[in-house]
Design goal:
The complex is a heterodimer of chains A (about 300) and B (about 90). Chain A has about 300 residues and is of the alpha/beta class. Helices cover about 40% and strands about 15% of the residues of chain A. Chain A has nine helices and ten strands. The longest helix of chain B is centred in the middle third of the chain and has 7 residues. The chains are: A alpha/beta (about 300), B mainly beta (about 90).
Chain lengths: ~300, ~90
């Protein structure tokens, strides 16, 4: 720094402007403009209070929710909606727990109906999840594709949880899903991006001629560097839940995730240096006082 | 009448043929004696209609139709709401 307060202020202002313009933190997906590229789940928190604080710390604009049977025989138990500011967050209902196309379609319709009643802008979309196996929670590709087609035909903006298979990802885009959401690794496993190669291919295939088509990494994120990794590969956003909810300090992890998504996006836009086998000195070669020449 | 409610057998008690039940309020216009509408079931369970969705026999019933949709013996009803999830 020059030590000149006016210059320093100008530099700070320039940095801020750069952040505003180039961070492109707005994520356009499914007819919505989200002010954060991080989407957070609302499940598995120790308490609704911790959930509420974590969501706020993360800076997210969009949160996922599940659709479940009303607990008719237990009048106790608080309502999650008492802890969610419906004016602040766009809700994205999921079809978690569905194992076939028909059930997922019914679930999506129910989620839409509830959000319609709540007058939340998320009534037009759904996070489609059709599982094949309860142990791995891997998606059933056949039922997922069928359900995606049905829901697109019913007017839903479908954000589709899928594996990291580029061929399936292409087919899902072809049937009209608003965003393909490949898993980094199994749901809740915290293993991060297990197959960056496939994710790169998905990004290349789905964004060919359509650079703004949103691809959001969903599932398996474990920590903030996983989020940054996904964004540096070129993903448009990351959806996570367990990584925050089950962190030792969920609120602190939510802050870390916020930093991770911003760091990853900026880094992607800035353009990293290539990896190379050998060193390349960062201090000049000429004028060294050492008698040992560079070789 | 017996229905299935959220996967379990449930005895739904329609409003009585005459007189008022002492602790359930109902609108006789939307619940003719001996029948039970979704609206009645929802209010019996103290549920907020705007926070739930209702299916009868795997068909979603919009909340505008709660008053008019009459439940029948053996109907399978699902009442769902939002829960935390990823």
């Amino acid at each position: 720094m020059s030590g000149n307060p006016t210059v320093e202020k100008t530099i700070d202002q320039q940095a801020e402007n750069l952040l505003d313009q180039n961070s492109e933190s707005i994520l356009e997906v499914g007819g919505h403009r989200l002010s954060s590229r991080l989407i957070l789940g609302t499940g598995r928190y120790e308490s609704f209070e911790i959930m509420q604080q974590s969501l706020a710390a993360s800076g997210t604009h969009c949160i996922t929710v599940a659709v479940r049977r009303e607990r008719l025989y237990d009048g106790e138990g608080r309502n999650i909606l008492d802890f969610i500011d419906l004016d602040k967050y766009i809700l994205l209902p999921n079809t978690a727990g569905c194992y076939d196309c028909e059930t997922a379609v019914r679930c999506a319709r129910m989620g839409r109906e509830i959000l319609r009643g709540l007058e939340n802008p998320g009534a037009n979309w759904v996070k489609l999840e059709v599982l094949g196996d309860s142990k791995t929670l891997l998606p059933d590709p056949v039922e997922t594709l069928k359900a995606a087609e049905r829901l697109v035909a019913e007017g839903f903006e479908v954000l589709c949880y899928t594996s990291d298979d580029p061929i399936l990802a292409q087919k899902l885009k072809q049937v009209g899903v608003a965003s393909v959401m490949p898993a980094g690794s199994p749901i809740g496993s915290g293993q991060g991006i297990l197959n960056p190669n496939n994710l790169r291919i998905i990004l290349e295939y789905l964004k060919e001629g359509d650079p703004n088509y949103p691809v959001i990494v969903d599932a398996g994120v474990g920590t903030a560097s996983d989020v940054a990794t996904a964004m540096e590969l070129g993903a448009d956003g990351v959806l996570l839940n367990t990584a925050v909810a089950h962190a030792r300090d969920p609120v602190q992890m939510a802050l870390a995730m916020k930093a991770g998504i911003e760091a990853g996006r900026l880094s992607f836009l800035a353009g990293r240096i290539p990896k190379q086998l050998y060193a390349s000195a960062s201090s000049p070669e000429e004028g060294v006082i050492s008698t040992r020449p560079y070789q | 009448m017996q229905i299935k409610l959220n996967g379990e057998v449930f005895e739904l008690i329609p409003p009585p043929m005459e007189g008022n039940s002492s602790n359930i309020e109902f609108d006789t216009a939307s619940n003719p004696a001996g029948t039970a509408s979704i609206a009645l079931l929802v209010s019996q369970r103290n549920l907020n209609p705007r926070q739930i969705a209702v299916e009868v026999n795997c068909q979603l019933i919009p909340r505008e139709e709660f008053d008019n949709h009459t439940l029948a013996e053996g109907d399978s009803v699902e009442i769902v709401t939002l829960a935390g999830g990823g």
